Task: inverse folding
């Protein structure tokens, strides 16, 4: 199988741009070729139509019937503990690391530089020892 | 007008019984004096109103109606004014040398001007709000507070990270390395040529000597040519010498600040390093 993540009812998607950029949503129903009815009760996204283009599919799927109301979506979301599972993925960690790097102050950059230097020195030393 | 007249009379009526009470209490002699001292009675307006703001009589007619020709008052002449009346001498008698010259001349004290310009100086237009530099409002960026680490961008210490102490009277920032850390002495820096980082050193208890002002830091110029043609270019003070006072002031301030810097890990190394840009580093994207 070439594709592993499909657009289906219950698929959790990551919103990549727009008003809700950076949030997770669950696909509740498909409206037409380009849009889906989407809901993110545990991530602060109201139930609304959203184009597929701004969604990036994740590995998580919930179980609820199509057009289920928000209460059901929330129940399924909390049962699967999606928020914690998401925070544990590499994807989410990379996003967090990127944010932290952008917020670094001048002093932080200096500390990082010093830490990297020391680390590289240790590594090179170990390599030299092996030769 | 009739109404105003009644008001005037009412005033009189109110005052008289008030007057009479003290009169009755006092002795008989005073009674006579009190009676003579009548309360001032003011006449109503002698200029009837035709419409709002317009009176019936002109200025000169009113002058006559109010009998101001009889009511000319002058303030008593003070001693100062009496002294001022003594006019200064217009001419002076000066002795003149040489015989056959008559011995003295009468010379005017204030002479007529020897030159009149062709055109009069034109009247200057009114301007407002043009203040001299000493009265300008000094501003300080909100990101710069005492103890902030600043990055100097110009001057011989460009790129160095420095601790901000206070803003001086002209608006320049008083800054120190400290000297032991990065060889920047107590120095002035311009606010505009400085990047304020978000790193702050706690300078709350540090006492900065009061004599560190702009006059203390101002560059000295020694110019006393005394009209000597030779060696005009070899001016004194080509080489700047650090005075003893500067050294003591530096020690006094730095000793307090160094103690605080040592408390924060890695801060000393940070102040020793210099700031620079490299490939892929864009100042507008950096968070300082």
Result:
């Amino acid at each position: 199988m070439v594709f592993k993540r499909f657009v289906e009812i219950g698929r959790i998607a990551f919103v990549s741009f727009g008003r809700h950029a950076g949030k997770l949503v669950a696909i509740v129903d498909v409206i037409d070729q380009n849009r889906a009815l989407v809901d993110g009760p545990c991530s602060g996204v109201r139930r609304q139509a959203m184009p597929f283009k701004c969604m990036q599919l994740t590995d998580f799927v919930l179980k609820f019937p199509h057009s289920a109301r928000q209460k059901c979506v929330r129940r399924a979301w909390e049962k699967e503990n999606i928020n914690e599972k998401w925070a544990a993925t590499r994807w989410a960690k990379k996003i967090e690391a990127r944010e932290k790097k952008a917020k670094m102050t001048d002093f932080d950059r200096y500390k990082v530089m010093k830490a990297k230097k020391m680390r590289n020195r240790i590594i090179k030393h170990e390599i030299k020892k092996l030769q | 007008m009739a109404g105003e007249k009644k008001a005037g009379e009412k005033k009189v009526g109110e005052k008289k019984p008030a007057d009479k009470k003290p009169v009755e209490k006092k002795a008989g002699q005073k009674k006579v004096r009190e009676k003579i001292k009548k309360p001032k009675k003011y006449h109503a307006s002698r200029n009837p109103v035709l419409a709002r703001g317009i009176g019936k009589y002109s200025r000169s007619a009113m002058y006559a109606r109010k009998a101001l020709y009889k009511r000319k008052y002058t303030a008593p002449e003070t001693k100062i004014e009496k002294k001022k009346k003594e006019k200064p001498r217009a001419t002076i008698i000066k002795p003149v040398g040489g015989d056959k010259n008559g011995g003295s001349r009468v010379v005017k004290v204030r002479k007529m001007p020897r030159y009149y310009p062709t055109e009069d100086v034109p009247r200057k237009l009114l301007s407002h709000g043009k203040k001299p530099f000493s009265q300008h409002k000094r501003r300080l960026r909100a990101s710069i507070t005492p103890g902030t680490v600043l990055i100097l961008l110009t001057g011989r210490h460009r790129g160095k990270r420095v601790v901000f102490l206070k803003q001086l009277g002209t608006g320049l920032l008083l800054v120190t390395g400290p000297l032991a850390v990065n060889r920047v002495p107590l120095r002035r820096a311009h606010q505009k040529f400085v990047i304020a980082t978000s790193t702050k050193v706690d300078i709350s208890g540090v006492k900065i000597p009061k004599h560190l002002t702009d006059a203390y830091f101002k560059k000295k110029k020694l110019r006393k040519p005394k009209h000597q043609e030779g060696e005009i270019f070899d001016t004194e003070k080509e080489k700047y010498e650090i005075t003893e006072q500067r050294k003591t002031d530096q020690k006094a301030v730095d000793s307090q600040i160094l103690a605080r810097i040592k408390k924060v890990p890695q801060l000393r190394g940070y102040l020793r390093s210099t700031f620079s840009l490299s490939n892929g580093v864009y100042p507008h994207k950096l968070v300082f």
